[in-house]
Amino acid sequence: MNEALLERLQKFLSREDRASLVGCPATQEEISHAEQLLNVRFHEDYLRFIRMFGGAYVGLAIHAFSNGSSIGNETIVDLTLDFREQSKELPFGDELRASYVISIDGSGDPIIIDQTEKVFICYHDTGEVKFLADSFEALIEDNFYEW
Fold this sequence. Notes:
4-stranded antiparallel beta sheet
Protein backbone atom coordinates (compact mmCIF):
# COMPACT_ATOMS: atom_id res chain seq x y z
CA MET A 1 0.00 0.00 0.00
CA ASN A 2 1.25 3.44 -0.75
CA GLU A 3 2.50 5.53 2.15
CA ALA A 4 0.07 8.41 1.57
CA LEU A 5 -2.93 6.10 1.92
CA LEU A 6 -1.47 4.43 5.01
CA GLU A 7 -0.91 7.84 6.60
CA ARG A 8 -4.52 8.85 5.88
CA LEU A 9 -5.79 5.59 7.39
CA GLN A 10 -3.53 5.93 10.44
CA LYS A 11 -4.64 9.51 11.06
CA PHE A 12 -8.30 8.57 10.69
CA LEU A 13 -8.20 5.41 12.80
CA SER A 14 -5.96 6.74 15.58
CA ARG A 15 -8.53 9.21 16.87
CA GLU A 16 -9.90 8.21 20.26
CA ASP A 17 -13.53 8.57 19.15
CA ARG A 18 -12.91 5.93 16.44
CA ALA A 19 -11.52 3.21 18.71
CA SER A 20 -14.41 0.87 17.85
CA LEU A 21 -13.39 0.98 14.17
CA VAL A 22 -9.95 -0.56 14.60
CA GLY A 23 -8.83 -3.93 15.92
CA CYS A 24 -5.52 -5.27 17.15
CA PRO A 25 -2.65 -5.78 14.70
CA ALA A 26 -2.34 -9.29 13.29
CA THR A 27 0.59 -11.40 14.43
CA GLN A 28 2.77 -13.48 12.16
CA GLU A 29 1.53 -16.59 13.95
CA GLU A 30 -2.11 -15.72 13.18
CA ILE A 31 -1.25 -14.96 9.57
CA SER A 32 0.73 -18.17 9.02
CA HIS A 33 -1.93 -20.31 10.67
CA ALA A 34 -4.72 -18.74 8.59
CA GLU A 35 -2.81 -19.09 5.33
CA GLN A 36 -2.24 -22.76 6.11
CA LEU A 37 -5.88 -23.40 7.07
CA LEU A 38 -7.22 -21.61 4.01
CA ASN A 39 -4.51 -22.84 1.63
CA VAL A 40 -3.86 -19.31 0.32
CA ARG A 41 -1.18 -16.64 0.46
CA PHE A 42 -2.42 -13.25 1.63
CA HIS A 43 -1.31 -10.44 -0.65
CA GLU A 44 1.14 -7.86 0.65
CA ASP A 45 -1.29 -4.90 0.73
CA TYR A 46 -3.78 -6.85 2.82
CA LEU A 47 -0.99 -8.08 5.09
CA ARG A 48 0.35 -4.57 5.62
CA PHE A 49 -3.13 -3.35 6.49
CA ILE A 50 -3.92 -6.08 9.04
CA ARG A 51 -0.45 -5.83 10.60
CA MET A 52 -1.16 -2.15 11.27
CA PHE A 53 -4.89 -2.08 12.05
CA GLY A 54 -6.19 -5.61 12.48
CA GLY A 55 -9.77 -5.79 11.28
CA ALA A 56 -10.91 -2.21 10.72
CA TYR A 57 -13.68 -0.14 9.18
CA VAL A 58 -12.36 2.07 6.36
CA GLY A 59 -15.47 2.68 4.24
CA LEU A 60 -16.15 -1.03 4.43
CA ALA A 61 -15.44 -3.55 7.17
CA ILE A 62 -12.15 -5.35 6.55
CA HIS A 63 -11.94 -8.53 8.62
CA ALA A 64 -8.74 -9.96 10.09
CA PHE A 65 -8.29 -11.81 13.41
CA SER A 66 -9.02 -9.14 15.97
CA ASN A 67 -11.57 -6.70 14.57
CA GLY A 68 -12.79 -3.35 15.78
CA SER A 69 -15.85 -3.87 17.99
CA SER A 70 -18.13 -2.18 15.45
CA ILE A 71 -17.24 -4.83 12.84
CA GLY A 72 -18.02 -8.05 14.68
CA ASN A 73 -16.01 -11.05 15.78
CA GLU A 74 -15.90 -13.04 12.52
CA THR A 75 -12.32 -13.60 11.47
CA ILE A 76 -11.10 -13.90 7.91
CA VAL A 77 -10.83 -17.66 8.55
CA ASP A 78 -14.44 -17.87 9.81
CA LEU A 79 -15.79 -15.90 6.85
CA THR A 80 -13.80 -17.74 4.23
CA LEU A 81 -14.59 -21.22 5.53
CA ASP A 82 -18.29 -20.38 6.01
CA PHE A 83 -18.67 -18.95 2.52
CA ARG A 84 -16.73 -21.84 0.97
CA GLU A 85 -19.16 -24.26 2.59
CA GLN A 86 -22.29 -22.26 1.74
CA SER A 87 -21.22 -21.64 -1.86
CA LYS A 88 -19.73 -24.95 -2.93
CA GLU A 89 -22.66 -25.61 -5.32
CA LEU A 90 -22.73 -22.07 -6.73
CA PRO A 91 -20.87 -21.05 -9.92
CA PHE A 92 -18.23 -19.19 -7.90
CA GLY A 93 -17.62 -22.09 -5.48
CA ASP A 94 -14.37 -23.06 -7.20
CA GLU A 95 -13.17 -19.44 -7.19
CA LEU A 96 -13.80 -19.20 -3.44
CA ARG A 97 -11.65 -22.25 -2.72
CA ALA A 98 -8.62 -20.39 -4.06
CA SER A 99 -9.53 -16.98 -2.58
CA TYR A 100 -10.19 -15.43 0.81
CA VAL A 101 -13.11 -13.37 2.12
CA ILE A 102 -12.11 -9.99 3.52
CA SER A 103 -15.54 -8.37 3.87
CA ILE A 104 -19.29 -8.76 3.44
CA ASP A 105 -21.58 -6.23 1.81
CA GLY A 106 -24.90 -5.12 3.30
CA SER A 107 -26.74 -7.97 1.57
CA GLY A 108 -24.47 -10.68 2.98
CA ASP A 109 -22.41 -11.15 -0.19
CA PRO A 110 -18.71 -11.95 0.27
CA ILE A 111 -15.99 -9.64 -1.01
CA ILE A 112 -12.98 -11.73 -1.93
CA ILE A 113 -9.37 -11.39 -3.02
CA ASP A 114 -8.32 -13.98 -5.59
CA GLN A 115 -4.89 -15.44 -6.33
CA THR A 116 -4.04 -12.59 -8.71
CA GLU A 117 -4.85 -9.97 -6.00
CA LYS A 118 -7.99 -8.81 -7.80
CA VAL A 119 -11.06 -8.05 -5.66
CA PHE A 120 -14.54 -9.35 -6.49
CA ILE A 121 -17.96 -9.55 -4.93
CA CYS A 122 -19.85 -12.84 -5.19
CA TYR A 123 -23.64 -12.52 -5.25
CA HIS A 124 -25.03 -15.51 -3.38
CA ASP A 125 -28.57 -15.05 -4.76
CA THR A 126 -27.56 -15.17 -8.43
CA GLY A 127 -24.15 -16.86 -8.41
CA GLU A 128 -22.76 -13.85 -10.31
CA VAL A 129 -19.24 -12.58 -9.65
CA LYS A 130 -18.52 -8.88 -10.19
CA PHE A 131 -15.09 -7.27 -10.43
CA LEU A 132 -14.53 -4.49 -7.84
CA ALA A 133 -10.86 -3.52 -7.94
CA ASP A 134 -7.43 -4.47 -9.30
CA SER A 135 -6.03 -4.78 -5.76
CA PHE A 136 -6.78 -4.41 -2.06
CA GLU A 137 -5.16 -0.98 -2.16
CA ALA A 138 -7.44 0.11 -5.02
CA LEU A 139 -10.48 -1.19 -3.11
CA ILE A 140 -9.57 0.89 -0.07
CA GLU A 141 -8.84 3.96 -2.21
CA ASP A 142 -12.28 3.59 -3.83
CA ASN A 143 -14.16 3.23 -0.52
CA PHE A 144 -12.28 5.17 2.14
CA TYR A 145 -13.07 8.74 2.99
CA GLU A 146 -12.36 10.77 6.10
CA TRP A 147 -15.34 12.04 8.10
